[in-house]
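Title: [Solved] Phosphopantetheine adenylyltransferase 3D structure

Original question kept below for reference.
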Amino acid sequence: MKRALFPGSFDPITLGHYDIIQRALDLFDEIVVAIGVNNEKNSMFTAEKRKEFIEKAFEKEPKVRVTTYSGLTVDYCKEIDAQFILRGLRNPADFEFEKAIAHTNRKLSGIETVFLLTASRTSFISSSIVRDVIRNGGDYTVLVPDSVRIE
Ligand code: ADP
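Solution (posted by the thread starter after getting help):
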């Protein structure tokens, strides 16, 4: 069973994350989308709400599971028996940052990180921009899956 962990804050999930997960479904038997809750102080949505948004977006996809975790990502990979970490790359800044983390994770655990380049149509989207749009009353719905709606 090829299992990949897709770790992140997902505050909230965006069309960029959605695209990465959809495309990775062809590569793995199961994708565990794992919401990291180490640094909760500045989040806009609770971990429960973030989980709900992702679960609803993939409710028809049995290969996607959503969890929360704290602590080291590689420790959580071992706990759930994930052999791969999945990450998206938007730009050179992402690459530089992710490179150091991926090397560290492999040094610590031997776990490989698999990178997918973002689709050009979603490469400009980030959760922090989505939060800004929400805070200022803009139309965030064009940046996120339909499951992300604020009452
Ligand atoms: P983190 O707090 O770990 O950066 P995010 O929720 O922002 O968590 O991102 C999780 C993963 O999704 C990262 O690999 C990030 O590069 C990727 N990602 C973020 N935005 C996009 C996007 N627009 N397109 C594709 N991948 C993205």
